[in-house]
Known about the structure:
Elements: H1 8-20, H2 23-26, H3 36-60, H4 66-74, H5 76-108, H6 115-132, H7 134-161, H8 179-191, H9 210-239, H10 241-246, H11 250-255, E1 259-260, E2 264-265, H12 268-298, H13 303-319, H14 324-371
Antiparallel strand pairs: 1-2
Helix pairs in contact: 1-7, 1-9, 1-12, 3-8, 3-9, 4-5, 4-14, 5-6, 5-12, 5-13, 5-14, 6-7, 6-12, 6-13, 7-12, 12-13
Amino acid sequence: MQKENLSLAQLLALIFIFLLGSAIIMGVATELRQNAWIGISIATVLGTGLMYFYYTLIKLVPNHNLYELMEYGFTRPIAIFFSAGYIIYFFYISSRLNRDFAELITTAVLPLTPIEVTILTVMLVIVYILYLGIEVLARVSEIFFPYLIGFLFLLIIFLFVSGRIRFQNALPILGDGFMPVIKGLFPGLLTFPFGELIVFTVILTSVTNFEKAKKVTLLGTILAGFFLAFATFIMLIALGADTMQFSQFPLLSAARKISVANFIERTDAFVVFIMLLGILVKSSIFLYAGLKGLEYIFKIPYRNFTFPIGMLISCYSVWIASNFAEHVEEGLVFVTRYFHPPMQFGIPGILLGIILWKNKKKQGAKENSTAG
C-alpha cells in the first residue's frame, strides 16, 4: 500500500484541532458548572498520560498501526474481529461529528436548509480530501491552524472589550467540594475528548520522524487541553454557569453577546469557521482510521472505499437521531458509558499486556540462542 508521510508540524496541528474539534463548540464538562475549567485542566494531565500510553503502544512494534498491532498480538482471525469493532466505532463517531456540525449550521446560519443538504455537503468535502490522502488533510490543518487560534483569541478579546465578562460568574469555586470534579473525570472528561486520541494509533506510523513524535503528541495534547480549559473559563464568566450548562452551543451563545461600539457584532461567522475546521479535521481523521481498517482486512487501498463509505456515513448522520436532544442524550449516555471505555482503554490495555509478554518471550529466546 502507498506510504503517506506527515511532518511533526502537521502532526501538532492535527492533534490540536482534533482535540478542540467539537469539544469547544458543544461544550465540555458544563455539568460541573463553575468547576468545569478545573475538571478540564485535570483531565488534560491525565489525557497527556493517555496519549503517552497510545504512543508507547505503537512504539513497541515499529511501523505497525493499530490493526497490525492487533494481528501481532492476537493473530489475524482475532485481529479481524477486533478490527471490525474499531471500524464501526470510528465510522460511528465520524457520523456523530457530522451531525454536530449540521445542527450548528441549522441553528446559527441556515435554519431553512434541510439538515441532509448540510451533512452531504461537508461529507463530499471530507471524501474528496481523503481521496487525495491524509497528507492533504495534514496540510490543510497546518495552513488553517494559525487562523483557528487567531479567531478564538479575537472572540475572547471582543468579549472583554464588550464588557460582557463577569468574573463573579466563576464563583463559588469547588462549592460542593472536589468530589463532583473527580466523578466528572471518568468516563466523561477522560473519554471525550482525550480518549478519542486512540484514533492516532492508526496515523502515527505515517510520521516521518517517529522518535520525535512523542514530544509533539504530548505537547499538542497539553496545549489543546489547557486552551480548552481557558476557553471554557471565558465562556463561564461571559455566560454564567446556568446559561453555559443548558446552552446547545456555549461558544456561539458567548459570541452573540459581543457588541463593540455597535459596530462589531454578530460574530457567528468566527464560530462557524472554528466548527467547520474542527469537524472537517476530526471527522476526516475518524473516517480515515476506519478506511485504513477496511484496507487492512480486504487488502485493497482505502481510497477505493472512500466515496461509498462517505455516502453511508452521510445517511447514518441523518438517521442517528430524530432531533438534537436525542442526539446529545445518546452521546452522553450510550457512547460515553458503553462505547468509549472498551475501545479506548479495555482493548488497548489488553493488547499492551500481550505485546509486552510476547516481546519479553522473544527477547528471552534470543538470549538463550546467543548463550547456546
